[in-house]
Amino acid sequence: MPRIARAAIVSVALAGLWPVSGFCGPDRFAQLQSAYDHEADPVRKAKDLAKLEPDQFASVREQLAAGDEVEALQQLEHFRDEVNLTVAALQPLAPKGEAHPEGFKELQIALREALRQMDSIITGLDVDKRPWFRAVRADLLASQNVLIDVLFPPKPRKTLPKNPAPGGPQ
User: SS3 of 146, please?
Assistant: First the structure.
């Protein structure tokens, strides 16, 4: 069988499986949210929340396009609350965060993207509606900073012994 024909068959087969695999469709957000809600392990919960972030912001953008800033803000506040709960659940694992960054890293990267999305959303809002969205952004930034501190803890500063001044009393 020629190479092009094989590639076409594989493409058609994969295209047929695409909707079944959960990578598209209107239920993707609900599936991801359900997976996050039912997960008990904090690391897997953080990974699920990281996967949920793009769909969450797509939904927020749809609400804003429809002119429903209140619903968009409620969705963002809900996302912020989920982030706070997940970061709090990861805190007991913080001493291992640098050596075992799973979950911490994915959530931090998702929050970095969320902050970029928030900046884009805020600049498109009326000036009088920005403070509420900025408050959510500030909370997400604080959570991201916690994750960065876990992933990259400050190194202890070396203190140099004080040398007596030359020619002074010893």
Answer: helix
Handedness of CA 116, 131, 105, 63 (dihedral sign): negative
Q: Band of the pLDDT at 92, cuts 50, 70, 90?
A: confident
Whole-angstrom Cα distance, residue 88 to residue 97? 13
As given in the structure block, the two tokens for residue 166 are: 């030359």
Domain that holds residue 42: 24-151
Query: Helices 42-65 and 28-38: crossing angle, nearest 10°?
Result: 150
**98 domain residue, yes or no:** yes
Distance CA(103)–CA(169), nearest Å, equals 56
φ/ψ region of 118 (left if φ > 0, alpha if ψ in -120 to 50, else beta) reads: alpha
Between CA 65 and CA 45 the distance in angstroms is 30
DSSP state of 128: G
151, 105 Cβ separation under 8 angstroms:
yes
- Condensed to tens digits (0 to 9), the pLDDT of residues 118-164 reads 999 999 999 999 999 999 999 999 999 999 988 888 777 777 667 66
Separation between Cα atoms, residue 65 and residue 72, nearest integer Å: 10
Residue 137 one-letter amino acid:
R
